[in-house]
Write a structure and sequence with these properties.
- By secondary structure, this protein is of the alpha/beta class.
- Helix content is 35%, strand content 10%.
- The protein folds into two domains: 182 residues, Peptidoglycan recognition protein-like (Lysozyme-like, 3-Layer(aba) Sandwich); 51 residues.
- Strands 1-4-3-5-2-6 form a six-stranded mixed sheet, with helices on one face.
- A hairpin with a 4-residue loop joins strand 3 and strand 4.
- The longest helix has 49 residues.
- It is elongated, with a radius of gyration of 29 Å.
- It starts with 8 loop residues before the first strand and ends with a helix.
- The relative contact order is 0.15.
Length: 242
């Protein structure tokens, strides 16, 4: 697993993250920072917006700012003493610069970078690109909100969910996530620049191979034609001798 996104800006967290629990399915958890969606993230090496609840990455309209490698836990979720594990339950987390109540207003560039992050995380971790059901904010808030997982549902879940789904937490972000917009960008991300380059190289190699095979075929055909003519001449000479 490559722990750092190749197109991310490194902005290392000030505190170490927890180890992931072994054997727990991967979850890709989305948060919103609850600020103006047009606002850009500014890295502060000492804290994360005044606290130590660092995610794996922060996403804004400029790109991805990564704080932890994805092979270790982050610290964004509340983790109550004696309850189910949250941050350590193989939760790969990102914060998006925006508000849960207005998540559909996120700039298309931010949605594109979020899709890039999710697609890459899925490729690296094996998590499926399937979505939990997202509810609009503020109905999604509260520890007993309708969409929130039980402890066992959380531990068993794999795919893409939000802070609003995590047990023992009361936040409702990211609200009614614009899943269709994300899926459209994810389809574009599947054809990444690296993959496109590899396919172009493969196509060029295939075309060169086909051209070489065509030349060989022509040469063999010409040789066979010449051999046929020589046999015909020999036959004529043999007939003349008789």
């Amino acid at each position: 697993m490559n722990g750092f996104h190749p197109r991310a800006t490194h902005a290392p967290a000030a505190t170490a993250g927890p180890d992931f629990l072994p054997g727990v399915p991967v979850k890709l958890v989305i948060h919103t920072i609850e600020d103006d969606p047009g606002k850009l993230y500014r890295f502060n090496p000492g804290d994360y917006f005044g606290h130590q609840g660092w995610p794996h990455a922060t996403i804004d309209s400029r790109g991805i700012h990564q704080h932890y490698p994805i092979d270790t836990g982050a610290r964004t979720l509340e983790n109550r003493r004696g309850g189910v594990e949250t941050n350590a339950a193989h939760a790969i987390q990102c914060e998006v610069m925006g508000r849960a109540e207005f998540v559909d207003d996120l700039p298309d560039s931010t949605i594109g970078h979020l899709a890039d992050w999710l697609t890459w995380c899925a490729e690296q971790s094996g998590a499926p690109l399937t979505f939990a059901d997202f509810r609009p904010h503020p109905a999604s808030a509260g520890v007993n909100a309708q969409q929130r997982f039980t402890g066992q549902e959380w531990m068993d879940f794999t795919g893409i969910c939000g802070h609003q789904h995590v047990p023992e937490n009361d936040h409702g972000d990211p609200g009614d996530l614009p899943v269709d917009r994300l899926r459209n960008h994810m389809e574009e991300e599947v054809m990444s620049p690296e993959l496109t380059s590899q396919l172009q190289l493969l196509l060029a190699t295939t075309q060169a191979t086909n051209a070489a095979l065509a030349r060989v075929e022509t040469s063999v055909r010409d040789e066979n034609f010449g051999l046929g003519r020589q046999i015909a001449i020999l036959r004529q000479e043999v007939a003349a001798i008789k």
